[in-house]
Design brief:
The complex is a heterotrimer of chains A (214), B (372) and C (236). By secondary structure, chain A is mostly helical. Chain A is 80% helix and 0% strand. Chain A starts with a helix and ends in a 10-residue tail after the last helix. In chain B, 32% of the residues lie in helices and 22% in strands. Classes of the chains: A mainly alpha (214), B alpha/beta (372), C mainly alpha (236).
Chain lengths: 214, 372, 236
C-alpha cells in the first residue's frame, strides 16, 4: 500500500511542502501571540474590555477555517496571506483566554504583596503577574501551535500550498501513499513543535510550575 | 546593614503612626472603622487585636493606603500620609502578610531586593544588602538562589520579613504573619521578631487574633471591638490587670494565667543546696535532689531515700532566670516530681531549685509594683 | 460584479431554496451528520472518560490519545479513510466521530478526576458507594467542564462536516466544493457565510444548554486547575 519509490522520487517536493506548511503554522502563532498579549493585558487592566473581547473571539473561533479562507480569497488571492490571516486571528483568540486567565490566576497574596510594595498597577501586571502566567500561556501556545499545524492542511483545498496538497493528490489519484506521508509528517511536525515548546517552558520557568489544586 | 541610596522617607529614626478621627465607611453603608484616634509610638511594637470583622486589619491597611480612609488623617511621623504619592508611600513602608506573598518566579534574593530595585538601587548593591538581611532574619546564605516553592512555610515567612525590611522603612506592618505557621515554628518566629526589634528597633504594627501572641510581642496592645472602635489601648500588663470593659475582660481570657507570661523571673530566689554531681556517690536523704553533669546541666531527679543514680526520672523542664517569664518557671515546677522548679542561666547551667514559697513571694512582689 | 452583490444574489435566488441541492436541504443534512457524529462520540468518550476519571486511572493514556488525535490533520484522516474504505457515508462519519472524541474524553476525564477531594471524601463518609458517587456527586459537579467539552466537540464536528463534503459527504460544505469546481465564487462564499452563522449559533446554543443544565452552586467556579487542553478548541 505504501509506495516508497514514489516517496523517494518526490522528496524535494515533499520537503518544500513541509517547509511551507511549517511557515504557515508558525507565523500565525507568533503574530497571534504578539496581538493577544497587549489585548490580554488591557483586558486585565480595564476589566470592561474582557467580556467584549471574549465574546468576539469566541464567536470568531467557532467559524470553520475553510469558510474564512474562502471569504478572504477575493481580497488576498492565492497567497499565503489568505491562510495566515485567519489562523493568526484564531491563535490570538485562543491565547487571549489563556493570557487573561493566566494573569488572573496569580495568588491573591502575591498581588497584595506587590501592591503593598509600591508597584503601580501596570508595572505589577507586566513584571509580576504576567511572568507568573507564563506556564499557562505556554500551555496555550502549545495547543495553538498543534491546532494550527492541523488546520493549515485545509488551505490546500483552495489552492494555498501546504502538506494538504498531498491529501488532495492522493485523493485525486486514489493513491494512499501521499496521504500517509502527509499525515505522518503533520503529526511529526506537531510532536516536535510540542516538545520544543515544553523545553522552552522548562527553561523559562525554573521556579516550579506545579499548580496545586485547591 | 548597608542602606540603599534612595529612600522615600528618612529612616534614621523610626516614625510614629498617628490616627486622627479616622473612619472607613463602605459604599453599602457598613462601617469598617469608626472615628479612631490612636498613636503608635515610634520604635515600639503595637499590636491590634480583636474579633474578626472589627476593623483591625482595615486600620492596618489604611496606613499604607491599601484601603483609603473615608475621613480623618493618618500621620506617618509628622507628615500626612495622604500627601504622599501612593506607590512612593508604600515603598517606604514594609508589609508582611499571612502567606508571605513571595513572588514565585523570582529567587529568594531577588524577592528581598524588590523594593530597593524599585527605588532605583543598582541590582548588585541591592542583592548584596539582601544577603545581609537574609542572615539577619536567621536564614542560611545557601537559600539565596532558591525559589520560594523550595522553602518551608516558616522560611518563606522569614523571607517575607526580610523583604519588608529591605528598604529600611521607618514603619513595618504585619498582618497576621504567623497565623498560617505551625505552633512550634511560630514561637521561633516570634522570638526572632523580638530579637530583630532589639537590634533594629522599627515601628511595628502587628495584627493578630491570638491574644497570647499579642501579650508576648506587644509594647502596647490595642483592642478593637465590633463596630470598628477601640475598646482599650494599653500595655499588656495594664490590659490584663485592669480591663476597661467586660468585653475586653472576656476577650483577654484567663488574664491571671496570661499575666504569668509577663512576669519576670529576675528576682526569683533559688537554692543550690540540693544539687549533686552525677559522679558523686549518694548518701541517703529525705529530700528530693537534682543531679547535674560536669557542665552543670540538669540530668535526673533523685527521690528521697534513693542512693543510686538511676535514669528513672529525667529532669524535663528548666527555666532561664531573667529571660523566661514566671509562666515557664511554674511550668518547670509542675513538671518536676519534686514540685521544684529548676533555675538555670543562659547556658543551661543550673543555678538552683525553687520551691513554692519563693513563687508566692515573687508573685506578691510583682503584683504590688503592678498595682502601684 | 461586486463580491457582496454576487453573494447576496445567490442568497436571494429562489432556486437555491428549493429542490435537492438547496440551502434548507444541505443545512438539514449538515445538522444530521453533526448530530449523529456527536452522539456517537458521546457514546464512546463519555463513559470512558467518566469511568477512568472516577477511578483516577489512565491520565497518561487519555492525554496521549487526545494529543495524537488532535495532531491528525482532518483532511488527511478523511481522505485516507475514503481511500481505504471507499466513497460513502461511513468513512467521513468515522472521521467525524474520531475527531469529536478528544474534547469530550479529556474534559469528562478531567472534570470527574479533579472534583474536590474533600467533596468525594464527604460522599464516601455519608455512605455512598462507587457508582453512586460518580452519578450523584462527581458528574454533577464536573458538569460545566463536561459541557464545555461537548460544546468544543460540537464546533469541531460542524467544521469537520464542512470539509467532509470534499470526499462526497453532503451538507453545507457542498456549496464550497461545488462552487470551487465550477469557479462560482458566489456559491462558495454563500456556503461559507451559512456555515459561519451555523457555527456561531451552535456555540450560543451549547452555551445556553450548559448554563441551564448546571446547578447554580457549581456554575461559577474557577477552573484553573485543569490543563489547557480541556479548555481549548481545535478546529480543522
Amino acid at each position: 500500500m505504501l509506495d516508497t519509490a514514489w516517496i523517494w522520487r518526490n522528496l524535494p517536493k515533499i520537503w518544500d511542502l513541509l517547509v511551507q506548511h511549517a511557515v504557515l503554522s508558525y507565523v500565525p502563532v507568533v503574530v497571534g501571540l504578539l496581538i493577544a498579549l497587549p489585548v490580554g493585558i488591557a483586558c486585565v487592566r480595564w476589566r470592561w474590555c474582557y467580556p467584549i473581547a471574549l465574546a468576539a473571539s469566541s464567536a470568531f473561533f467557532a467559524i470553520p477555517s475553510l469558510a474564512l479562507f474562502v471569504l478572504l480569497l477575493p481580497y488576498t488571492g492565492l497567497t499565503a496571506a489568505t491562510a495566515i490571516i485567519p489562523l493568526t486571528l484564531y491563535t490570538a483568540s485562543l491565547l487571549l483566554r489563556n493570557i487573561v486567565d493566566g494573569i488572573r490566576s496569580t495568588d491573591d497574596s502575591v498581588r497584595q504583596a506587590a501592591a503593598a510594595m509600591g508597584y503601580r498597577p501596570m508595572r505589577r501586571l507586566v513584571s509580576i503577574e504576567l511572568p507568573i502566567a507564563t506556564p499557562l500561556i505556554l500551555g496555550g501556545l502549545r495547543v495553538a501551535a498543534v491546532a494550527n499545524i492541523s488546520m493549515v492542511s485545509v488551505a490546500s483545498v483552495i489552492g494555498v500550498a501546504s502538506l494538504g496538497d498531498l491529501f488532495i493528490d492522493g485523493t485525486q489519484r486514489f493513491f494512499a501513499t501521499p496521504i500517509i506521508v502527509g499525515i505522518v509528517l503533520t503529526a511529526v511536525l506537531a510532536l516536535i513543535t510540542d516538545l520544543v515548546l515544553v523545553s522552552v517552558q522548562r527553561v523559562l520557568t525554573p521556579w516550579g510550575q506545579t499548580r496545586r489544586s485547591k | 546593614m548597608t542602606k540603599p541610596a534612595v529612600r522615600a522617607h528618612s529612616a534614621e529614626t523610626p516614625a510614629s503612626v498617628t490616627f486622627q478621627s479616622v473612619t472607613k465607611r463602605y459604599p453599602d453603608g457598613t462601617i469598617g472603622v469608626d472615628g479612631i484616634d490612636l498613636v503608635c509610638e515610634a520604635g515600639k511594637i503595637t499590636v491590634f487585636v480583636g474579633p474578626s470583622g472589627c476593623g483591625k486589619t482595615t486600620t492596618l491597611r489604611m496606613i499604607n493606603r491599601m484601603i483609603s480612609p473615608s475621613s480623618g488623617t493618618i500621620l506617618i511621623g509628622d507628615r500626612d500620609s495622604a500627601t504622599f504619592d501612593e506607590a512612593q508611600l508604600r515603598r517606604g513602608i514594609g508589609y508582611v502578610i499571612q502567606n508571605a506573598g513571595l513572588f514565585p518566579h523570582r529567587t529568594v534574593i531577588d524577592n528581598i531586593a524588590t523594593v530597593p530595585v524599585l527605588l532605583g538601587v543598582n541590582r548588585r548593591e541591592a542583592r548584596a544588602a539582601a544577603m545581609e538581611l537574609l542572615e539577619r532574619v536567621g536564614l542560611d546564605a545557601s537559600l539565596a538562589k532558591k525559589y520560594p516553592y523550595q522553602l518551608s512555610g516558616g522560611q518563606q515567612q522569614r523571607v517575607g520579613v526580610a523583604r519588608a525590611l529591605a528598604a529600611d522603612p521607618p514603619v513595618l506592618l504585619m498582618d497576621e504573619p504567623f497565623s498560617a505557621i505551625d505552633p512550634v515554628v511560630r514561637a521561633e518566629l516570634q522570638d526572632e521578631l523580638l530579637r530583630l526589634q532589639r537590634e533594629i528597633g522599627k515601628t511595628v504594627i502587628f495584627v493578630t487574633h491570638d491574644m497570647d501572641e499579642a501579650i508576648r510581642l506587644a509594647d502596647r496592645i490595642v483592642v478593637f471591638q465590633r463596630g470598628g472602635t477601640i475598646a482599650q489601648s494599653d500595655t499588656p500588663e495594664r490590659l490584663l490587670i485592669e480591663p476597661a470593659s467586660p468585653f475586653v475582660r472576656d476577650f483577654t481570657g484567663d488574664s491571671g494565667i496570661k499575666w504569668l507570661s509577663l512576669m519576670s523571673t529576675e528576682q526569683i530566689a533559688s537554692s543550690s543546696s540540693r544539687l549533686v554531681s552525677e559522679r558523686d556517690s549518694l548518701t541517703p536523704s529525705d529530700e528530693w535532689r537534682l543531679s547535674v553533669d560536669d557542665a552543670g546541666v540538669a540530668q535526673y531527679w533523685i527521690a528521697p531515700g534513693q542512693v543510686e543514680h538511676t535514669l528513672a526520672t529525667p529532669c524535663r523542664r528548666t527555666f532561664v532566670v531573667g529571660l523566661d517569664p514566671m509562666r515557664a518557671a511554674l511550668d518547670s515546677s509542675l513538671m518536676s516530681p519534686a514540685g521544684l522548679a529548676v533555675a538555670t542561666d543562659e547556658s543551661q547551667r543550673v543555678l538552683g531549685l525553687v520551691d513554692f514559697a519563693q513563687f508566692d513571694a515573687a508573685i506578691h512582689r510583682y503584683r504590688s509594683t503592678a498595682h502601684a | 460584479m461586486n463580491v457582496f452583490d454576487s453573494v447576496w444574489a445567490w442568497f436571494t435566488n429562489p432556486e437555491n431554496w428549493s429542490g435537492y441541492d438547496s440551502i434548507p436541504v444541505r443545512l438539514v443534512e449538515h445538522l444530521g451528520y453533526s448530530a449523529l457524529a456527536i452522539a456517537c462520540a458521546l457514546l464512546i468518550a463519555f463513559p470512558l472518560g467518566a469511568i477512568l476519571g472516577h477511578l483516577h486511572r489512565g491520565q497518561a493514556l487519555v492525554l496521549t490519545i487526545a494529543n495524537l488525535i488532535r495532531a491528525l490533520p482532518t483532511l488527511g484522516l478523511l481522505t485516507l479513510l475514503v481511500i481505504l474504505a471507499g466513497i460513502g457515508l461511513m468513512p467521513p462519519m468515522v472521521a467525524l466521530v474520531v475527531l469529536a472524541i478528544p474534547p469530550i474524553l479529556v474534559n469528562t476525564y478531567e472534570g470527574v478526576r479533579f472534583v474536590n477531594a474533600g467533596v468525594v471524601d464527604a460522599a464516601k463518609g455519608v455512605g455512598l458507594r462507587g457508582p453512586a458517587i460518580l452519578f450523584r456527586v462527581e458528574l454533577p459537579v464536573a458538569l460545566p467542564i463536561i459541557m464545555l467539552g461537548i460544546r468544543l466537540a460540537a464546533i469541531q464536528v460542524v467544521s469537520s462536516a464542512t470539509i467532509a463534503a470534499y470526499v462526497g459527504l453532503g451538507g453545507l460544505g457542498r456549496f464550497i466544493f461545488d462552487g470551487l469546481g465550477r469557479q462560482d465564487f458566489a456559491q462558495m462564499a454563500g456556503g461559507s457565510v451559512i456555515v459561519a452563522l451555523l457555527a456561531i449559533v451552535t456555540e450560543i446554543v451549547f452555551i445556553l444548554i450548559a448554563v441551564l443544565a448546571t446547578s447554580p452552586g457549581v456554575r461559577g467556579r474557577e477552573r484553573f486547575r485543569f490543563s489547557p487542553l480541556s479548555r481549548k478548541k481545535v478546529m480543522p
